[in-house]
Design brief:
The complex is a heterotetramer, with two copies of chain A (77 residues) and two copies of chain C (128 residues). By secondary structure, chain A is α+β, with helices and mostly antiparallel strands. Chain A is built from two helices and five strands, in the order βαβαβββ. Chain A is globular. Chain C is an alpha+beta fold. Chain C contains two helices and nine strands; from the N terminus they run βββββαβββαβ. In chain C, the strands form three sheets. A four-stranded mixed β-sheet of chain C has the order 1-6-8-2, covered by helices on one side. Chain C has a three-stranded antiparallel β-sheet with strand order 7-5-9, with no helix packed on it. Chain C is globular and about 45 Å long. The C-D interface holds C 17, 19, 22-37, 86-87, 89, 98, 100, 104, 107-108, 111 and D 17, 19, 22-37, 86-87, 89, 98, 100, 104, 107-108, 111. β2 (26-33) of chain C pairs antiparallel with β2 (26-33) of chain D, so a sheet runs across the interface.
Amino acid sequence: MKIKILTFAQTRTQLGFDEKDFECHAGETPREILRRLAPQFDPGKTIRVAVNQEYADWDQPVGNASELALIPPVSGG
Amino acid sequence: MKIKILTFAQTRTQLGFDEKDFECHAGETPREILRRLAPQFDPGKTIRVAVNQEYADWDQPVGNASELALIPPVSGG
Amino acid sequence: MKTHIAFTRAPIVPPAATTTAREIGAVLEFSGVVRESENGQKIPGLRYEAYEPMARTQLEKICAELSAKHACEEIWFIHRLDFVPVGEASLFIRINARHRGPALALMAELIDRLKADVPVWKISDVLH
Amino acid sequence: MKTHIAFTRAPIVPPAATTTAREIGAVLEFSGVVRESENGQKIPGLRYEAYEPMARTQLEKICAELSAKHACEEIWFIHRLDFVPVGEASLFIRINARHRGPALALMAELIDRLKADVPVWKISDVLH
């Protein structure tokens, strides 16, 4: 299956793309997918992940989700 | 000396005037002045008095103040 | 801190928003609107009266006191008097501040103080 | 409770105030304005980006959650994106409620939640 990976703000700069389709399987977690996509990238404690537009767990399998977004600390307003 | 007595909202209805010049002397308190002006009127606990546009004590002499106002519970906004 | 206090007998027109100070990050506006029922009765509106000079003095003191606690730059306060029909504003307050926290705190306390200490009255003779 | 959420790339124009519900007693409006300095540096403005569909979903959930706690009737939320010059609003929120208390509480919590959980970012590449 393919998942669309979206980046914003500094994660876009760190990863060098704003969206990318990436081959993965349902049992993979966001952390595992990111590790394969960008081995040097460490989300640390501040970058959250959203799966299908909901905040999700880095270590929970993505299932049949179609979208995975990296959410650095937000600063709207 | 003369002091101007002002009434508002229900105190105007109770006293039957909205402003009145009244003869008094500096040693009199608002309570004493009101008692002479309207013996039947009891400010109770809810009606405040303002002397020269500042909240004042019912039992503090008015001194050379020129204005005494009865302030029933306020309800602006 | 600048304070603009006005009483008007005409419908309230919010003054032009002048965020001339380029350090203003928060503009908070409150309109108090007359609701169609008062104490469970349908009303056409409310009638307000004020002891204007004292109300103005009290408001200036209250604004000075509150802005010492909550850093705000400018306050506009307009209270309408006489008859105010349902659906129209009897009160308008605008607060300009660097940050939202002090603006929100000052707004809440200013309205509380208005309703406790400022000689303005809602007259109920139109209720019946 | 009705919620109107919008993202715009043009200057924010507050929507017409429709207090059609005749039980609205409080209209509270907040504008978040870009200040002339950020982290001690003078800036021409800020650039905002959003993950729009998720931001919208998050805001709808947050508004529903907050209005269950603080009884409000209607919320308008507008966030500007792309470049916002100093002195212009990046954010506009209006809350209609029967009473001021819930409107003030909801406003404070909504902005806090926006700044904690809604995927909108202030981009600093114009700062340098």
